[in-house]
Specification:
The complex is a heterodimer of chains A (about 120) and B (about 120).
Chain A: E1 3-5, E2 10-14, E3 19-21, E4 24-26, E5 32-39, E6 46-52, E7 59-61, E8 64-69, E9 74-79, E10 88-96, E11 104-105, E12 109-114
Parallel strand pairs in A: 2-12
Antiparallel strand pairs in A: 1-4, 3-9, 5-6, 5-10, 7-8, 8-9, 10-11, 10-12
Chain B: E1 5-7, E2 10-13, E3 19-24, E4 31-37, E5 43-50, E6 53-56, E7 65-69, E8 75-79, E9 88-95, E10 105-106, E11 110-114
Classes of the chains: A mainly beta (about 120), B mainly beta (about 120).
Chain lengths: ~120, ~120
């Protein structure tokens, strides 16, 4: 069965520090997709990244980077030089590569960036 | 608008009443998803539409919940005889296609409070 675990319920860091959000997933499929979403205080979910299971190349987008490791079933998300605007709940999600599949979300990590 | 819209943004109802939540997906998106986010919980998948049909109804929590989509566009989620445990934010998402390669874009949600 699919499962996504975000062990960190809540994290607080001081602005400009780097922070890594952990995500561990379980799936029996060899084809699957991993996602990260941000939910700021406004509540609206914002898509950040999608990664398929065949592409283990790490990705960097500005201050954001993602480390996908199939060997440990992890898809961790790092924010470098954090800013107050990064304060949000971050969800990691998984879906398998079937046409009718659904996204399974982790419970989210609430990130507080302190000024 | 360019994004997914949902109405109402907030709904307060009395226990036992029926409520109807509406989702307008992004124009041209064939897939539409409903999720629920309860206080302290992660995101919970409810139902998915491909066009007007719903191949996956496994996430609906009870037979009080139903959803329909007409014309391959607008969808309504109906909750009959609401209970206090139905209080949550109901999120709608749409994607261009039905596969997991298609990113889901979320609406702002409807916050339902059952008194």
């Amino acid at each position: 069965a699919q499962k996504v675990t975000q062990a960190q319920t809540e994290i607080s860091v001081v602005e400009k520090e780097d922070v890594t959000l952990d995500c561990v997933y379980e799936t029996r499929d060899t084809t699957y997709y991993l996602f990260w979403y941000k939910q700021p205080p406004s509540g609206e979910l914002v898509f950040l990244i999608r990664r398929n299971s065949f592409d283990e190349q790490n990705e960097i987008s500005g201050r954001y980077s993602w480390n996908f490791q199939k060997s440990t079933s992890s898809f961790n998300f790092t924010i470098t030089a954090s800013q107050v605007v990064d304060s949000a709940v971050y969800f990691c999600a998984l879906s398998e590569g079937r046409w009718d599949d659904k996204i399974i979300f982790g419970k989210g990590t609430r990130l507080h960036i302190l000024p | 608008g360019a994004g997914v819209s949902q109405s109402p943004s907030n709904k307060v109802t009395e226990k036992g009443k029926d409520v109807e939540l509406r989702c307008d997906p992004i124009s041209g998106h064939t897939a539409l998803y409903w999720y629920r986010q309860s206080l302290g919980q992660g995101l919970e998948f409810l139902i998915y539409f491909q066009g007007n049909s719903a191949p996956d109804k496994s996430g609906l929590p009870s037979d009080r919940f139903s959803a329909e989509r007409t014309g391959g566009s607008v969808s309504t989620l109906t909750i009959q005889r609401t209970q206090q445990e139905d209080s949550a934010v109901y999120l709608c998402a749409s994607s261009l296609g039905a596969t997991s390669t298609d990113t889901q874009y979320f609406g702002p949600g409807t916050r339902l409070t059952v008194l």
